Amino acid sequence: MDAEVTIFDKIVAGQIKANIVYQDDLCLAFHDVNPQAPVHILLIPKQRNGLSQLSKAQEHNKEILGHLLFTVTKIVELVDELKNGFRIVINDGENGGQSVWHLHIHIIGGEQLTWPPGSSGNQKK
Asked: Is-catalytic flag, 104?
């Protein structure tokens, strides 16, 4: 799946427009077009380098993974609605709800979030 061009690759390349919140040499953050909360930002590495999903991470991905998490703090400083709290989510694989095979972090907030965040309704009792 990693070899396929994703919608996120097209956003990074400027082929698809996005409402960009933040970017640096390594990553790009933009508003999700299908928000699940008042604030829903996606943070992606600009280069996948085999990192189509978190479970595919290897030793050489440690730097970008740390950079992405640290960048969340920069985004929170830029978006006032996140300053009272937020949640980060990484969906992994089909059962984890991943729909784009390019690692991405969901930064959601702007309201009181509930727990658990989602389920299939098939929990064992």
From this structure: yes
Say how many Å lie between the first and final Cα of the chain, rounded: 36
Among residues 97, 32, 33, 29, the alpha carbon closest in space to that of 67 is found at 29
- Please tell me the distance from the alpha carbon of residue 87 to that of residue 83, in angstroms, as a whole number: 11
* 78 close to 22: Cβ distance less than 8 angstroms: yes
- Interatomic CA distance for residues 110 and 42, integer angstroms: 15
pLDDT tens sequence across 16-68: 999 999 999 999 999 999 999 999 999 999 998 889 999 999 999 999 999 99
Q: Which of 31, 67, 104, 106 is catalytic?
A: 104
